[in-house]
Amino acid sequence: MTTLTHAAAEAPATAATTAPATPPTTPRYRAVPYTVRTSTCERRADGTLVLRSPLTPKATGRTGFAGFIPHWAERRGDLPAFCERDAHSGEWQRITWRHLWQQVQAVGAALLDLGLGQGRPLVVLSPNSLEQLVLLLAAEYVGVAVAPVSPAYSTLSRDFARLKGVCDLVPPAALFVQDAAAFDRAVGVVGGAGVPVITVQGAGGAVRPWSALSATELTPSRIAQVAAAHAAIQPQDIARILFTSGSTGVPKGVPISYANLHATAANLADMLASLAEQDEPPVFLDWLPWHHALGGVLNLGRSVLLGATHYIDDGKPLPGLFERTVRNLREISPTVLTSVPSAWTLLATELERDPQLAKSLFARVISFGYGGASLPKDVNERIQRVAERTVGERIVFGTGLASTETTGVGTYRNWASDDLANIGAPPPGTEIKLVPLEGDRYEIRVRGAHNFSGYVARPDLTAAAFDDEGFFQLGDAVRLVDMADPAKGMRFDGRVAEDFKLVNGTWVRTGAVRLGLVERCAPLITDAVICGHDQTYVAALAWPNVAACQCLLPELAGLEAAALVDHPALLAAIAERLRQDTGSASLRVRRLLLMAEPPSMDANEIADKGYVNQAATRARRAHLVEQLFQPDPGPGVARA
User: Fold this and answer.
1) Residue 500: which H helix or E strand, with range?
2) CATH number of the domain at 67-232, please?
3) Interacting residues of 327 by C-beta distance below 8 A, sequence separation 6+
4) What CATH number is given for 499-639 in this structure?
5) pLDDT of residue 393 exceeding 70
6) What is the CATH number of domain 2-58+394-497?
């Protein structure tokens, strides 16, 4: 840190810098009509840096996102607002902006009739749907707190431990499920006497059918009641309660206030102003779950803010489900497409072999986005080659760094960069503190009106989450792209808590090793877990990219994951890639074991967004980790 401290002392206390929207690059990129970011950098004597935008966030003049619905009902009343593919017919079902506004008022009135409000929250157990969309927006409009919960807690869990933990923190005054039969056991565990259960399908003793709520008559008195409830909302009132888990899997409740929503809306309005001004509404296709900040606040809110047409993607980056995403992308050409790196890895393979898919995807898109982890360079290059072949230009991949606690706002890069780990700069209204670590690394912290105020019923965790200046501690490490010009962005450098030491005391930067391994073995693996705590070398557990592995050699064609993971030809190909790495011991993976069993959501190995929990996976698969470090690990382990 000596060099940084001396350099900081020579620089002005505050320097303004500007990040170009599209820095000069050799390849040609499609123009990105996003607002240019600027930053100032405060350099402190102890080496700490504080980055800020000199601009003031734009006030949206609305309460949350739902307040924009009446505007779009008037301007784009007959245009589709949200669409969902019917599970039986396969056709797209649509709700127009005018109908959405009518439904928000009707369902909002029904929620008030049920006595729901700030102290009586609604808990949502099921996945994304048009009905849940109306419910979330109606609740937000009339000031009813909603706690959307991961459906996996109800459908994939055996003991419902995490669902019970959530409902202990936030006792439901009402429950919502799409299908009563599918959630019957879960409702029986957390429902309780006198708790109404709103269902779209199915019936029962305490069930309130969705059809009845959505058909609530909008009498003049009810319309006045809805308007009064909306007008009475205070900035500190809670709109959503989201849940986030650490390596232990114990749920932490994160209350998102209307002030947080307003700050998030201002951030989106600032960056996406040009999209809101276009006559043609933007189009989004999105699978990200609404019980997370990215899918349920940023992406859902973005569609309402911009008066977009939002298609609910019924696919996921999982075996047997990603085919649905591919089908949808053949039909829908999005303006922006955001997903997780594992999804982009799968999509790269599909784009390379499906020109019609590529033609549809690149027809309208102005930018891509990814989050949860860094995008492997190989995946980016493969997608860009298809883009150049299809439309003659590349597409910008944007990304950023934030968390549930910051309502999905932190840093963002919306300009072209060959450095895919570049997470950008802070938007107006956000301050980034960089606290020096060893070398040229910093711990990143965030402050802004979008930050939550504290965890539900956990003052101990709240106190530990913020520093003495009120910055939320993300637990991530970054490096500056350019020490002289911080507005050029920060490079994500892994989770501080995931790093470990080898037996000789050498630190292993898990994030960097994982990304390097996935890139080196591309396209044969989709993700990896880095191992080696107190060992003499680094090893890894990894999941195969089945489609890519099947194309590697004729003898692998048609084999499923269970047969691929032990196949000598595939292991030999991976071993050869491991041997090509001549880096330092702390970056070089010496052994790799492929796994057929996908990461378990119930065991907290993976989040809904696709982020693999390194610690939880190592703990659950300790026997495989042990195998990696045996003197003779067996034929199923690839060795450098």
Assistant:
1) strand 500-501
2) 3.40.50.980
3) 315
4) 3.30.300
5) yes
6) 2.30.38.10
